[in-house]
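Handout, section 3.2

Students often ask what a structure token actually looks like in practice. Rather than define it abstractly, here is a full record for histidine kinase. The first block is the sequence as you would receive it.
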Amino acid sequence: MTSPLNATLAPASLPELADLLPDPLIFLDRRGRLTHVNRAAVTARTPASDLHPGQPLPGDPGAPLQQHVSRVLTEGGSARFTYQDPCGLWFDVYLTRTSSGALAQFRDVTTQTDATRAASTLAEAHQLLERQHHQLEAINDDLNAFAQSVSHDLRAPLRHIIGFTDLLRRAIVKADPGATERNLSVISDAAGRMNLLIDSLLEFARHGQHALRLQPLDLSSMVRAVQHDLTPDTQDRVVIWDTRELPTVTADPTLLRQVLTNLLSNAIKYTQGRPEARICVRAQRSADATAVTIEDNGVGFCPEHASRLFGVFVRLHPAHEFEGVGIGLATVKRIVTRHGGQVSATAQPGQGAAFTFTLPHAP
């Protein structure tokens, strides 16, 4: 938008010409008081619509319009900015210094502004639907994997209970005390494992229902607190911690602590048997997220199995070597995904493993 009139002309010579122009025009003296407004300015409800000559523009001196007027009157030059009137109309304002004060031209851009905002709102709605669609797909994938895992892992102890109950019945008929004791022991172990699996499933489900309470968290302090909690697991062992200075992240404190507990306890567990266990926690910030890596020198695993690690009840090592039900890493993935991040793992058999999760700066 260019100035409608030559700024060197005195406003007193322009009233009739100004009234012919379609854009609202406001003339001000050197003190910022009104000297003239054209007809379009009155019709368009500009700041001077209800004023008489000699009155200052209404509003707080700190308001954008008054600030621009004051600057142009003091320093000269011109200014261009957007102004919204009390009725909600938007104007593109061109303000310029004149020989006797200042001249402000208002151009109604309400239609363009509304269209831009509508387009922006539509784009945001589309992005929201995209995110929800991806979230629903991820949830559906989790449900399918969950159903398959449950059907497989819960059936195993049930088969033990059913099979050994039948053997127990036969042993009782044959009056074989030794066989009866063995069968009862297997049945008890199978029932206990089923109970543990069910408890783990309930805990896994609760993490999906926990409402996120996001806040800035000192990652270094939280790692030290989790280390302290895990002290009983490192008794009579040599464990060297390398917890470097870690940044502040945005996350839910309860859920992030669960992620760190699961990953650090895994590192402790899978370094059993090492003369000297080494566990390193490091973080790297990028433009939009922080990547946290927990690395150990434990037994590791085959890289081709990395994509399976975060499923429910997935175990890559025999239960008699390392205890657990295979729910910890699935919980880690669920929590990190809810924060808008990602989780991954790299390893080599016998050479340790590294687990990395990301936390967006603005989840």
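Discussion prompt for tutorial groups: The domain at 11-108 is CATH 3.30.450.20 (Beta-Lactamase). How would you have guessed this from the sequence alone?
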